[in-house]
Amino acid sequence: MQETATEREKRVQDYWSEQQVFQQSIDQREGKETFVFYEGPPTANGLPHAGHVLGRVIKDFVARYKTMSGYQVLRKAGWDTHGLPVELGVEKKLGLSGKREIEEYGVEKFIEECKKSVFDYERQWRTFTDAIGYWVDMEKPYVTLENRYIESVWHILSSIHKRGLLEQGHRVVPYCPSCQTSLSSHEVAQGYKDVKDLSVTAKFKVKGAEHEYFLGWTTTPWTLPSNVALAVNRDLDYVKVKQGEEVYIVAKNLADAVFKDSFEVVSEHKGSDFTGLSYEPPFQYLTLEKGHEVIAADFVTDDSGTGIVHLAPAHGEDDYQAIKDSGLDFVKVVDEAGRYTAEVTPFAGEKAKDQDVAIIKLLAENGRLFEKEKYEHSYPHCWRCDSALIYYAMEGWFIKTTAIKDTIIANNQSVEWHPGHMKDGRFGKFLDSMVDWNLGRNRYWGTPLNVWVCEDCGHQHAPDSVADLRHHAEQEIGEDLDLHKPYVDRITLTCPSCAGSMTRTKEVIDVWFDSGSMPFAQYHYPFENKELFEKQFPADVIAEGVDQTRGWFYSLLTVSSLFTGKAPYKRVLSLGHILDEDGRKMSKSKGNVINPMELVEQYGADALRWALLADSAPWNNKRFSANLVAQAKSKLVDTLHNVHSFYSLYTEIDGFDPAVHGKGEQALLDQWVLSRLNTVTVKVKKHLDDYDFTAGARELSVFVDELSNWYIRRSRDRFWGEGLDDDKRAAYHTLHTVLVNVSRLLAPFTPFIAEDIHEHLTGTSVHLSDFPQADLNLVNEQLEADMDRVLQVVELSRQLRNTTNLKTKQPLAKVTVIGSKEETDPLRKYEAIVMDEINVKAVELSQEAGEAVRYEVKLNFPTAGPKLGKKVGAVQKALQQLTSEEARAVAQQGYADVEGERIEAEDLQIRQQADEGLELASNAVYTVLLDTVLTEELKAEGLARELIRGVQQYRKELNLPVDQRVTLSFHTNDQIKNVITTHQQLLENNLLLKTIKFEQKNDMKTLEFDGHSVKIAIE
Length: 1019
Fold this sequence. Notes:
Shape: globular
Structural class: alpha+beta
Oligomer: single chain
Largest sheet: 7 strands, mixed
Mean pLDDT: 90
Radius of gyration: 39 Å
Low-confidence stretches: none
Helix content: 25-40%
Number of strands: 39
C-alpha cells in the first residue's frame, strides 16, 4: 500500500530526531554570522488554533531559509505563564468567583494551582509544533514564571525606577469590574467591540432660577449619580433658549440640533458668564462640601452634545483633572466590583454599567430627562474575560512612557515593517496617542512589582536583583525563595533612608511587561550570558499576528526603549487573521473553527504550510478551509512526490547511479528545464530576501507543474527506452539535478517532502545544505521564451479540445497559429512538439487569419454610451453594417471611424468568429484555429489511441512491472480488428508487446469506449 503523506512525515520526523538534524543545522553554522530570531511566547494553558499555525510556519520558514543562506539561527522557545488568563482558568477549575473567594480559598494555594495549570496543554503544544515541522528549542525554553526570568524583569524595572520613570499615582484608568483590575492602554486597544448604548441629555436646574436648566449630555448615564460639576468652555458662545415654559442653556452652535421643535433665543452669553453658578444635580445622593457648580474646561467643545459636560471625577481622566484643579470634592460611588455603593440607595449593590435604562427611567420620573437616544459606537471590553470596561479612579503604578515618547517613535522609524503601511499607520498612530503605561495589577499570579515602601518615611526601594533584596532584607532569605506572591510579600526591608521597616507594594505587573522583557530575560541578562545576549540583540525579524501591534510588538519596543534606548528588532512581519472560507472570524459559537491537527492528519503538514504560504500574502486576512489544503496537497505535494517516484522507479529498473554513469548528451528539453531551474532560482531567492513568500511560492508552483506536465511528459519515451544510452543518461542526470535543487528551494516551504527527496537522492539532509545559487551560464533566455510560446499555443489548443469535447487521444488534421512574425517564426523549430502535444497531423504558422476568421464589431455601451449620447444608435447601426474586411481593419488598427466619430478600442467589443469546422481561441499573442473535422482515418487512429489507454490502465490494475513485455490477445468486431491491424506499429511503440493475437480466452477484460466493446487478455 502506498505511503500516506502523514506516514512519510512521521518517518522524516524520526530521521530528524535520530540524526539530531535541527541541532546539526545550528552547530554547523558556528562562527558564521548570526541571524537573530525571537519567539513570541504562547500560553500553554490553552490549545493551539489555526492562527498559531500561520505564525509558527512563517517563523520556521524564515529560520530555515536563513540557515540555508549561511547564517546561524538560534531558536529558543518560550512560555508566557503569568496573568489573568491563567487566573481565570484556575478560578473556573476550582469553582471560585472573584477576589474575595480567592482570598478565602488562600492566595498561596491559589498561586500553586496557577503554577501547575500553566503547562496543562504543553504536550499538545509540543505535538503540534513537531507535527507542522516548526524547529524551535523546546528543551531549554525561557519561562516567565522562573526566578531567573523574574530577576531580569526586576532589574529592568529597578533601572526605570531609579530614573524616576516608575511612580505611584491616583489616576482614572480603564478597569474591568469582573476581573477587578485595571488595564493598560495597549490592552484596552485589543478589546473594542461595536455595541448599541443609550445617551441622555439631562436637565440640571439652575439654583435660584425658576424653570431654568443647564442641559448636560452624556454617553454614560450610569455615571450621573456621581455628578460633581458641569463644565463649559469659557470662550464658547452659549444661548438661553425658551421652549414652552422652560429655559435651557446650551452652546449656540448646537441649539438647532438639540431642539427639534421651534424655540426662542432669550439671550446670548460666553461660557465665562456661567462659571461659578450653582445647580441642583439630577440625583440627590451626594452631600458635598464643595461641588454642584459650573466650572471652565478647555476640553469642552461644541462639536456634539450640548456644549455642557457632566463631570464624574471617578470615571474620566478629564473629569478627574478638572475637579482636582478646581478644588471640588472627589467622590466615588462605584466599588471595585463595579457596583453602586450604599449612597446610591435605589441601585445599591447593582452593577453600575448595567443601569443605564434604570437611570434614564428615574430621570424621567423626576422630571429631569430632556432626551434619550440610542447610538452605536466602539466600546472597550476586557481582552481576557470580555466584560465591558469602565473608567475608574484608583491608586496605581505607572511607567512614564510619555517622557520617552520621542525615543520610542524614533526607534519605530528604524524598523522595516511588512506590510509597510503599519509603521506610520496602525502602529505609528498608536504610538502617537501613547499614554503612560498603567503597570500595576491588583491580582495574584504575576511578576510581583519589586518596589518596597518605608512605613515611616515613605522612601521607596526597588531591588535590582535577588542579591539586592537579600542585602536589605530584615530577615534571612533561603535559597529556595520563590519570587511570587505571597512569598515575597513576607519579606520586609530595612529602609536605607531612615532604618524603618519597608513593605512591598501589593501589585503584580502587567503580563505584557513580562513578554516585552524577553530579549533580556530569556538569557537571565545582565546576571549571565552577556556575550550571548549581545550576539542575540536586537532581533533581525519577529513575526506575529496583527493584533500584537498593541501587544507584543508594542511591549518589546517600549521595554527596550526604556532599558537600552534602542529598538529590539529590525524587522516586523505583521500577520493577518485566519478566517473561515466565507471570510468570518473563526469561533466555537459559529462552529467554523478549523483544528490544525486534523488538517495535518488528513493532508500532511507540507500541504498545510504550502496552503498558508502560497495562497496570499501572510499580512492579508486569509480565507482558509480544508479544501485549500487539499488543493495544495494535490497540486504541489503530490505532483512533486509523483515526479520523484517516477525518477526512482526508472532509475531502479536501469540501475542508474549519477555518481557512476556519465552525463550523456543533453536534449533541448534538458537544456530548457535546467535554464528554467536557474531562472526560477534567481527569482525565488530575490522574493525570499524581500520576505515575499507568496511570490516565491508561486514561482515554484509554476515550475513544479512545468517539470511534471511538460518536461517529464515530453521526456517519457526517453525514460521508457531500453538500455542506458546517451540520451537516457542525460535525462536521468537532468532530472536528478532538478529534483535535488527543487527540494532545496522548497525546503523552507515544505520541509518534509523536501527532506524525503533530498535524503533519498544524496544521502544527506536538505536542511544541512545551502540554498541553491543560480548558475547563470545555464540560463538560455531565448530557449525559455521560445518554449513559453509553445506552451501558450498548446494551452489554447487544449482549451478548444475541452470546449468541443474532443479527447486528446483523438488526432486532428491541423492547427493554424496566427500571430506576428516575431512570435510565430520561433515556433517553426518546435512544430513536431506542437503536433505531438495537440495530436494534430500538421501545424500551419501565419501572420494573417485570412478568410477563415470573420470579425464582428459592436459598441461597448457602458463606456461608449455616455460619450456618444444621442448618436449612440446611429454609431451602433453603422458598426453592424461594416463588411468583413472593414471589421478586420478595425480589429487591426484598434479604432473605428463611423458617423463622423472616432471610436477608440475601449469603447468597442470586437469578436472573432471562425468558419464551420474550425474552432478559435486567442490570447494577447496568438490566435489558434483548430480543424475539428474528423475523417474516417482520424477516427480510426483515435480508436487505436483509446485502446492503448485502456491496455495501459489494465497493466496498472495487474501491477505489471513497467518494463515487462507482454502478449496481448483481442476478441472484438471486424472494425476494431482493422484498426488494430492498421495501427499495429503505434500499439507496439506504446505497449511493450511481444506479439498481438486475435482469439477468445477465459476471464478476458472488457474495455468500453466510443460505443465499442473490446475484450483483452494480457500474458
